[in-house]
Amino acid sequence: MSKVLVITTSLRARSNTDLLAERLIAGAKDAGHEVERISLKGKEIKFCTGCMACQKTRKCVLQDDAVPIAEQVKNADTLVFVTPIYYYEMSGQMKTLLDRMNPLYPAEYRFRRVYLLSCAADDDAQTPERAVNGLQGWIDCFPKAELGGVLFCGGIDGPGAAADRAEALEQAYGFGKALR
Prior knowledge:
Oligomer: single chain
CATH topology: Rossmann fold
Number of strands: 5
Largest sheet: 5 strands, parallel
Radius of gyration: 16 Å
Shape: globular
Strand order of the largest sheet: 2-1-3-4-5
Strand content: 15-25%
Structural class: alpha/beta
Order of helices and strands: EHEHHEHEHEH
CATH architecture: 3-Layer(aba) Sandwich
């Protein structure tokens, strides 16, 4: 099976997306995948300065937590990004991390499939569209990779509310179990 890297991007303790990610991870493990999780909580991730030195050196000139995360991303078969939807978009820390993955563009990366799990108080099916489009733009820069799937769990409002949403937790488990 695949080496799956799950990156959770909410900075809230016991966030709804963390609760959903736990179920996704359980499903992925039950399907036989090797799963590693990285949380962006407590991580220092600086903004990309656009210097483009990484395109020659394949290393970022900034020294922070994005550097080892990029190495883990490079060596995973499957990526799962987990984000709350803020103002109809992915979290700012997720976007900052994606920008810092620029050293991977010229590198030999292993990932082939990228998935997105998102959560929001709004339950309209169109709520995650901009986040999906933003992630697709990142994926498009990696010709060997593709968007493998998206799960949106809407109508989950308030800290920890996902714990009481059996249907959403089951969907997250199934999403994890179906990862390729």
